[in-house]
Each structure stands twice: as C-alpha cells, then as structure tokens.
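User: quick one, sequence for these tokens?
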C-alpha cells in the first residue's frame, strides 16, 4: 500500500526546484544549527500525493558547485534520516557517510569555502547525536533483515500481449463463473496479460512463493477479513503486495505483508518505535489493512477504486475521477490518469485471485505451508530473544520468524503494550521460565559483523569477552578464521549462546576464580562492591582500568589484579579529531567501539565533536 508515492513526490519536488531556480541564482543558504532529533521519531501522516511546489523554496544557486554539493549532501542526509526513523540503520549509516564524504571531497576543491566547513560541522554533529542516541537505546547502527517486496515488480511489467486468443478468454470467463468470488472479476486484455505473466513469464516464481506461504496465514487473514466485513478475496491483494512476506520492504519504504507506509500504518494503529514495527506483525497489519480497505470502499463505493486508492492514495484517485469525469477504474486506466503501477495493480490482483482459487488448473502444483498457530504473551522487561528461545526450548530462528515486528534481538524495555508471539502451547512455559528471570540474565548477547582488519582478539576486547569464548560460541574451529561480513554472536556474560547450546561440547564461565585477573561487570555492580570483593581499593581499580568516573557498563571486563594479563599491553593513544570524523569512524579506525570510546572519555562531552578535539583511546594487543 504505497505505490512509489514517496519517491515520486520527492523526485517531482526536486525537479520543480530545478526548473524554477536554474535561471535565477539566489544567495547561498545560511547553515542552520539543528537540534538533534529525538530517538526514535515516527513521521506525521501527510498525504503523499501532491507534487506541488512548496511556497518556500530552498535558496540554492544551481550555477554554484558549492551550493549544489551542499544540497546533494542535505538530500542524502535526509534520506538517511528516513532510514534511521524506520529502523534501517545500516542504510542510514551509508547515507550519512555519503553526505559527509561529498562535503569533504568538495572541500578539497574549495578549501577556503566557509559554507562547506559550516555544513560539515553540522552534519558531523547530527550524525554523532544519532549514534549516541542509538547506543543509549540499544545497539548502535544495526537493524533487522529485509526481504524483497513483490509490489516492486509491477514497475517492470508489460501486460499487453500482441494477441489474446479468444478461446482463452472464453475459457477463463467460464472458469470464473464456476468458482465462487466475493470480488467482481472482470476479464479483459489487461487481466489476461497478467495471467500469461504468471503462468509462463517472470512472475511464476513469485506466485509460487505466495501460494506456498499463504497456507501459514490464510486462516488468520480469512477470520479478520470476515470480522471486518470485507471480501475474503482481498487476501490476494496481500499476495500482490508482498507474497505474504512479513519482512517485505519496498523501494518506497512500505513494509510488511500489507505494505504500509509509515504514516498510513500509524494512522491505523500500527506502532513503530526504535524496538518494534507492527507493520511486520501479520495479525495486526491484517486488521489495519482490512479497516483501511473498508474505509476506502465507503469513500468510493467501488472495490476496484478502493484497491486503486490503497495503492496510490485516496486523494490521487479522487483527483483523477474529478479531472476525467470517469466513474470507474477501467476508464481511469484507459485515460492513463493514474500511475503505471496502479493501472497494473487491479488486473494483477484479479489474475492472482483467478489463479489462487484454482492453482492446479493453471499449472501450479504447490504445497501450501501448514497454518501457523500462535499465542501472545506480555514481556514487561527487555529480554534477549535467544534467552527466551533457550528457556522455552524453541529454535531461535523460529522465534525470530514469528516476531518479524521485533527489530532488535531484544524485546523493548518498559513497554506494557508489547506482546511477543510464541508457537501455540508455549505461553505457560514462557510464564514459568521468564517472568521471574532477573534483569542480569535477560540480555546476554550481542552481534558483531566482521569488518576488514578485525581480529578475534580485537573483537573480544571490544565487547569485554575472550577469544576462546567467541570461538566456542560461534564454532570457529582451529585455527579460528574470520570472514568479512560474517556475523558473530558475542557472549556478553560468558555463557554459550542458546542457539549453540545443544551442540556445544563444553561451556565456559566468567565466574571469578582464585588467582584470576579480570572480572566482567554485572547489573547492579559498583566500583565499591567490586573493590571490596577483591580486597583492593577503588583508586587502584580505576587506575588499572583507565576509568575517569565511577560509571560502569554491564559486560565490560575489568582488571582486578596488580598483575593484569591481557591489559598489560594496553597502549594509551590520544587521537586528534580530523574534519569529517564521527565517533563511529574513529572507532572503526582503532578497531574498537563507540561505547568503549565513551567509557574512556567519560569526563568529556562527546555528543558534539570538533576538529582538533583530543580523544583518549586505549589499544590492546592483537592476539
């Protein structure tokens, strides 16, 4: 439910700005000091249909390469902000870095240009603020996986064969009469073109995926469509949008089985926070889609127009009807009064409906997946999905698949409305095993994606664990080999991850033993408690661990002996911030983490960094 609206609107806006301003140079825009946005921020609902030029245009001189570079950097940054708000953090990070790189490259050519320096300072400050907010909320610039959205395929589909066999038309018409439908099914060249596309063209693969997946969700979808009083055949709109993939993400940032854009999802009660996105909750999204379609039918009195409005927006359909004087979808299609994707949208759904009601007749012998039976439980405290999976003896991959709306490995903290989806029959076991679990045992693990230059020792130090524990947790073998792009499970508490527990031959513990030299910080620990336990002074504890305050990070490994083993080779480096650097880039350079840099510089405010600032880094050995 999105069309390419957001992309089309921004493209039209940019084109309009170019057209109006190319011939009339304007003075350079003054850089504005921006307060970092709160985390996370879900956009307000704005009908994304009009491509009208705003009353206030950006002051850009298109004959000035500096102005153009600043505009392009701002557009990339704003695109990154959109990804950031929707939880797609790796993509956000790429856009942010691209914006900064563009300003740096332009600065090389125009070295004394103050506008570039001002813009660079502003961008770096905003990126830092977002990274710090991400760390406070959980895990920095990481996000949930995404899948291809079937709706994106419509852009490339041509649906007019050179010749439609009249016998085929008659055969299809007779078939439709014999099968019960609660949507009107019209047969024309457009619909027959899509039937050919799915039977013998490139669409065969995606419809087979949908015919397999639909079995998981059809009982639930049929129940909700019936409860909301809308045609059951609308299930094939879901096939057209996503082929029943809860993690589907389109190019226009529409998400979930029913492909809601952010604002429309919020309008129909689908919560989108840093931790969850209910557009990917199959049941809640189905309820929202049914209610939205019912509202559109009430507005237009016709299911074809309602579905067209679902795709391209009600305002666009209403304006097309007023402009053409038409009263039905097919007239709008003939007059090309709607976007190409929307013109294809209705015949596509009709073709999918015809095939879906009798797939074998059209050459599809696909076995549908069994229905997914689930139940929901409340989780009041942040809890790692891997901890839950181990506690209730459910494969973590299955738990993640059921909870596509959970964006992190961890459930949201302090969210009384959040519900976790479990396989049917597991709620009682969950309540017995998890409800009384202390906070110190709820969040135990993190993920690390291996980058160029990473070593096992460097990754271990970054997260306060050991190379041996990483090797055991990830079954790395002997000698352990890391590959760029590989995802490592990091045992923050020294316990073998649940996903590996059953197959592990041994496990290691970080419980303090006599003679050991390090201690891993747990929830509730203070420097005083740790010092007293190991019979040392707080001053020594701070000195050995380069601490400048009494604040501690859970999972950090502290030296607790006067003869430390691993930290003896630690080397203090004072890094002077260069133009364009962010905390994330500095951390990458030194193969450490933003969290570690913050802990080493707790007496400094790193929410905004400037060229020339001095930041303390502690480097260990690379073994």
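Assistant:
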């Amino acid at each position: 439910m999105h069309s390419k609206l957001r992309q089309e609107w921004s493209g039209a806006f940019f084109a309009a700005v170019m057209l109006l301003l190319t011939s009339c140079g304007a003075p350079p825009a003054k850089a504005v000091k921006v307060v970092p946005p709160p985390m996370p921020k879900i956009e307000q609902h704005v009908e994304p249909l009009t491509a009208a030029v705003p009353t206030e245009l950006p002051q850009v001189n298109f004959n000035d390469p500096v102005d153009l570079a600043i505009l392009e950097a701002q557009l990339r940054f704003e695109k990154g902000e959109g990804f950031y708000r929707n939880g797609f953090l790796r993509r956000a990070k790429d856009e942010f870095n691209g914006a900064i790189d563009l300003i740096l490259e332009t600065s090389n050519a125009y070295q004394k240009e103050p506008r570039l320096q001002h813009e660079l300072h502003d961008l770096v400050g905003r990126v830092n603020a977002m990274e710090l907010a991400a760390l406070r909320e959980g895990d920095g610039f990481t996000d949930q996986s995404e899948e291809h959205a079937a709706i994106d395929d419509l852009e490339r589909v041509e649906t007019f064969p050179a010749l439609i066999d009249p016998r085929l038309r008659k055969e299809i018409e007779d078939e439709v009469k014999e099968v019960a439908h609660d949507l009107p099914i019209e047969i024309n060249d457009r619909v027959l073109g899509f039937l050919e596309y799915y039977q013998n063209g490139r669409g065969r693969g995606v419809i087979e995926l949908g015919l397999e997946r639909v079995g998981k969700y059809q009982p639930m979808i049929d129940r909700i469509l019936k409860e909301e009083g809308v045609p059951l055949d609308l299930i094939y709109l879901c096939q057209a949008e996503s082929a029943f993939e809860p993690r589907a993400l389109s190019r226009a940032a529409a998400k979930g089985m029913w492909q809601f854009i952010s604002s429309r999802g919020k309008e129909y009660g689908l919560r989108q926070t840093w931790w969850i996105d209910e557009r990917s909750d199959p049941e809640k999204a189905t309820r929202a889609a049914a209610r939205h379609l019912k509202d559109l039918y009430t507005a237009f009195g016709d299911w074809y127009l309602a579905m067209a409005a679902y795709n391209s927006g009600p305002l666009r359909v209403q304006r097309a009807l007023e402009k053409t004087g038409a009263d039905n979808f097919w007239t709008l299609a003939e007059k090309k009064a709607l976007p190409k994707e929307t013109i294809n949208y209705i015949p596509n759904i009709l073709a999918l409906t015809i095939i879906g009601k009798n797939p074998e007749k059209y050459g599809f012998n696909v076995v549908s997946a069994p229905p997914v039976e689930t139940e929901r439980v409340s989780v009041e405290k942040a809890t790692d999905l891997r901890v839950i999976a181990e506690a209730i003896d459910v494969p973590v991959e299955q738990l993640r698949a059921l909870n596509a709306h959970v964006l992190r490995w961890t459930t949201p903290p302090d969210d009384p409305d959040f519900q976790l989806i479990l396989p049917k029959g597991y709620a009682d076991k969950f309540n017995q095993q998890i409800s009384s679990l202390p906070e110190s045992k709820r969040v135990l693990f993190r993920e690390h994606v291996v980058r160029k230059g990473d070593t096992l020792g460097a990754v271990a130090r970054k997260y306060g664990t050991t190379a041996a524990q990483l090797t055991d947790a990830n079954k790395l073998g002997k000698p352990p080999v890391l590959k760029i792009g590989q995802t490592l499970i990091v045992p923050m508490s020294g316990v073998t991850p649940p996903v590996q527990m059953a197959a592990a031959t041994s496990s290691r513990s970080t419980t303090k033993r006599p003679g050991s030299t390090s201690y891993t910080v747990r929830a509730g620990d203070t420097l005083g408690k740790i010092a007293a336990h190991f019979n040392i002074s707080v001053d020594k504890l701070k000195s050995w661990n380069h601490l400048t305050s009494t604040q501690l990070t859970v999972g950090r490994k502290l030296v607790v002996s006067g003869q430390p083993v691993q930290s003896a080779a630690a080397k203090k480096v004072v890094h002077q911030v260069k133009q364009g650097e962010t905390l994330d880039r500095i951390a990458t350079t030194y193969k450490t983490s933003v969290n570690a840099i913050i802990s080493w510089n707790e007496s400094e405010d790193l929410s905004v960094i400037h060229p020339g600032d001095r930041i303390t880094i502690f480097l260990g050995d690379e073994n």
